[in-house]
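Entry:
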Amino acid sequence: MIKRDLYTEYWYRRYDEARNLNWALIVSLLIYQVKDLLYPLSESHIQMNIVYCAVSVLTSAIQLYSYRRPELAWLACPVMFMLQVRNTIRLADFE
């Protein structure tokens, strides 16, 4: 039983660290997106940043939901994956 508690505590701490990293990424990306919405380079630039803002709202909602119970802390991993996919698309987008 003690081993199981240590295992659970270990992973909860890792997920908590992942959530902190996710918040840093979400906030920094959202600031950049809002700046680009205020000063767009083109029409397609506006549309892509609206999509990026929607992804930020979705990831924030999942992130907030993960705080409801300790068992939901694992949701930090899909959020991190979604943010990495979003960043990869941004790099390949060549706006």
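The two ends are 54 Å apart (CA to CA).
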